[in-house]
Structure formats: structure tokens, C-alpha cells
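Record pair follows.
FIRST:
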Amino acid sequence: MMQPFSQRNQASGSSQPRKLLIFRLVVIIIATGMLLGAIGLATFARTPKSAHAATWNEVWNDEFNGPANTGVSTSNWLYDTGTGYGCSGCPNNWGTGEVETMSSSTSNVYQDGSGHLVIKALNNGGNWTSGRIETVNTSFAAPAGGELAVEASIQQPNLSGAAAAGYWPAFWMLGSAFRGNYLNWPGIGEIDIMEDINGLSSEFGTLHCGTSPGGPIGIKLRSSQALRGAPEPGKVQRRGD
């Protein structure tokens, strides 16, 4: 299953304009079913078109071309709401110490009428709200012997210094077995395509797997400037512009 990005917020302050910085990310993997997710004060813009249309087949997209101030299509997306998945044994605050409450309100998650999705963190007297969405589809996978590419243009929060503390927009993928269980991480696998922490304007990528604690749960990814090509089997290629 593929998940979009959302904003994790761990700090106080008011929401700010969005930074004029666009990331274009490509992940090419040999994988089983995944889901895509997102959080944050950020914009999930139109999916870039393939540069190799003769060799790539688009299997899913969302251009976010709905009317201004409307929510996402619930045929494509699920809203994660509250402060955790809510299962018995599930950690509070999404397991990462987040201070916000995730909302399905169009104050936090809305289409802007110009082909973008906005996920906005808001501070109301010290009570933070934000948005976190994930794809309904959990079947994203490379064909046998093939590759899977996942792309998005994401505009980052326009914050720096102390005012940026706690802003954590992210774009990631999780193994489909996570949905409905929520206690089998990191064994189900996670690909953090992009995380931008505390307004640093630097994207971070990580592979999570194995067991926690005691396993190889975090493997850092390096950015690649190569376009889609033919990565070695079992490798992940990530590109950020």
C-alpha cells in the first residue's frame, strides 16, 4: 500500500507560509504490496509524468484537481485521525511523541483548486491539529522481475530556526500487512521516501525492517541523481531534485 505525506508537529507556534522548494522523488523497488502515506504542513502536488512512457505503465495517480477547499477523494484515501491507531497496545501520539491531533477537517487537509493537496498544521491556543492520509489501495508492487516507481512533488514548510522546531512533513510506504494490525512494525517493512525535519530543507530517507529492539531497523538511503533506469535487483533508488 502506498501512503502520502502528513505533518508531524512536536512544537508550539503558528502555521507559516509554505517554502518555495519542490522535491521530486522517485523510488524504484522490488517489493510486495505496499501502501503510501503522508503527514504535514506541505503540498502534495501533481505527479510528474514518466520520462520513459514506452517502458513505464502508470497504475495509479491522484492529481488533486478537485474544487478548492474540498477534502480528498475517499475512494483513493483514508484519513488517519486522533492521536494513534487506537488498537490495544498501540502507542500513543503515533509512537513518535507527536503533539498534534490528526483531523479530517478541510482546515487541515484540502485541495486548493489548482491541482495541489494542502496538509496544514494549525495551532489553536497550544492545541495543534494536522492531517495524515494513506491510500485505500494496498496492492502497489513491482511486477515479477520488474520495478515500481513512486513519485510526488512536495512543497515544504517555509520555516527555519526555532520557529521550525517540530515540523516533520513526510512521504512514505508501509507493507500492506500493517493495516488492521498496527503492532507488526518494522517487520512488515517501511520505506521513508522523504522526511524533512525541523525546517532543515534536507530530505532524509530510511528503510525500516527486522525487529525492534535488537534488529537492523533503520538503514539510511542516499539520494541518487540518476533518472529512472535499471537498478540492481533488490536495490532502492531514490532521487530528490
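SECOND:
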Amino acid sequence: MSFCLQLLVLVPILIDASHKDTPITMPHHNGLYYLDVKPANTTRHLEVIKSLTLSEYTLSTNGRKRIGFVGDNVASLVPEAVETIERRVVPSTNGPATQITNLPIVHEPTLFWYGIGAVQELASELDASRANLDQHFESTVQLRSQLHHVEQLLKRESSGIEQAQLRSNNLKAQLLVAQAELETQRVQEDQEYMHQQAQIELNHTNRTLILALERLSKEDEAAQARADAYMIKTFETTQNVERARMEAAETLSKIKHQREMEIQQSKENIKVETAKVS
């Protein structure tokens, strides 16, 4: 199967049908076309994308500078993304042509889908961090309730020994609140790091798509039409990922603001009650 057909196997049917009045029949997913379908290992995709080395190089055929992945580096991590050409004659701009054997050629669309898997893995990790943040937020609310209970006991008790014990409990509650703040800050830093990694992976995916489209532009008109459809679908996917990231950032900002307000209120209450006891 050719390079373009591996990208979009169904798009040519839609393109041919756009010039005809007769209805078309799309192939059905009945187990005869797609075999051994199973969920992809997005964790591995993320590790592979992080391990790949993006290189700048110059083509010996025309002297043009390019950016991308070198076949030898990719083959050690993603063998299915590299096709080895047994023999190829490479023309030179300043000398006789050179015959190259066992030339590794990178299949960019495969790496593009690895990038999509990596972004999905980052999104899953972000959801897990948000759940962890919610759990710490609930713990902070419970600590605030306990602190309020301690403050009420301080108001009702007048014994010096009992007041000393209550002050100790009050200090313990403050310590727990401080620990909860530190843990919440750590979770937020982890989420910011994941946001940065997701943006890096998104930029890498866009660069890979641009390289693929440059090659597709040299194909015939049918290949160009397939590339346009592929670009639209990928752009929509990128927009959805970016939209999800922005929504997650907005939600995190709201939670952070609410948490800061409640912690600040708790601190003010502690200062007031401590002053009253003293």
C-alpha cells in the first residue's frame, strides 16, 4: 500500500463520489478490513515522543535544510515508522550521483499518531492530577471544620490546662492546613509542567503535519484533495485538544482562587481567636 493510501484509505472514495450523482457504499467495519483492533498504549507513545531527537539536517540531493527525525534514531524506538530502501540513486548538486543502500525513510504519519497518543496520555495524567487536587481540597475543608470546632471549645472553656490543650490542638490544625497548602502547591506545579509538555507535544505534532503536507503537495490532484481533508481533520483534533487544555486551566484557576480565599479566612480566624485567648 502506498504512502498516501496508508494515510487516508477511505478519502479517495469520497473524492470520486463528489463528481458523481450515484450514491456510494462505504466499507463496513465488519472485522474483514481492520484486524486485531485494540486500544493503543498511549503511555508508550508519550515515552517514545519524549525520547525521539528532533534534528536539523541538509539534503544532499538539493542542499535544502530540513527539520525532522533521522531514520536511524527513529528505528531504534519505533521500527514500524521506518521503511528501509534497499537501493536508491541520489543525485548530487556538485558531483556525480551516489548509490545508497539500506536507506532508512521515516514515515511521518505514524509519528503523527504517536504524537496524538502522547497528548491523550498527558490529558489522562492531567485528569488524575485534578482528581488529586479535589481530594486535597476536601481535606482542607475538613481541617477548616475541625479548626472551627477547636475555636468554639476555646470560647467555652476557661480552665488554664484545658486552654493550653486547646491551643495545642489549634497549632496542630494550623500545621495541617500548612501541609495541605504545600501539597496543593505541589499538585499545581505538576499540572503546570504537564500543560507545558502538552504544548510542546502539540507544537511537535503541528510541525510533523506540515512536513507531511509538504510532501503530499508534490503528489497528483487526488493526493492533494486527500491531504486537505486530512489537514482539516487534524486541525479540528488540535483545536479540541487546545480547548480542553484551556478549560482545564480555567477550572484550576477557579479552584485555586477559592482555596486561597478559604485558607486566608481560616488564617484570619485563627489570629483573632488566638488573640482572644491570649
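COMMENT: The chain is about 70% helix and 10% strand.
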